[in-house]
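Action item from last week, closing it out:
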Amino acid sequence: MIGDDRHEGLLATLALLAPSRPPLERICQGCVELLQVSGAAVVLMSSDEAGSVAASFGARVAEVEDLQFALGEGPCLDSFERGQPVLEPDLSSGPQDRWPMFRHEAAAIGARAVFVLPIQLGAIRVGVLYLYRTRPGQLSPRELADALDLAELALMAVLELQGQVSYGPLGTGLEGEWANRAVVHQATGMVAAQLDVRLAVALARIRAHAFAAEMTIYDVATALVSGRLQLPA
């Protein structure tokens, strides 16, 4: 856990950088300013949900993160599953069998390095802190230490926001893109029933169609739910 002095110092710095922003957005902006990254996002996740951006700051960060949900692979998924940081300083030179689709698509929209830190308390994980740069290069030891501390602050902010509501609903500031993801889940169930396949297979079919048609997975899901689109058997 962060020491009290360092905790207070980070909070004071964040308050100066973004005094009017909500807590999670303040942390994301602090990441960009303090860690010299191009974008930062707090991504809420669970064992059943691939992830949803609760807050972000920086150009195209949500778009880069969203690739992982659409493609079903990427550093956020790995970090959350393992409960460990995933640090990739150069997407163009790392192991090419590691997130091959994500590497290609992320590079196409300008991401050159990605760093992901789990937001967790012991074995309880609520998401990840996702960072990316438009240039290759590893985080310095000081930047990595700051990133770990900021991920802890994000955990505290999530717990505080969620603690303000009754069981079930998400606290204000945590809704992010969950509403958009809900339509994907609905479409997945419809395709699974239509094609008589498992949910994982149905979601893979939706992702494949979105990729081939150069559409977002949300647009494909919305078209499926509205009846404007039907995937072939």
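Closing note: The CA atoms of residues 39 and 59 lie 6 Å apart.
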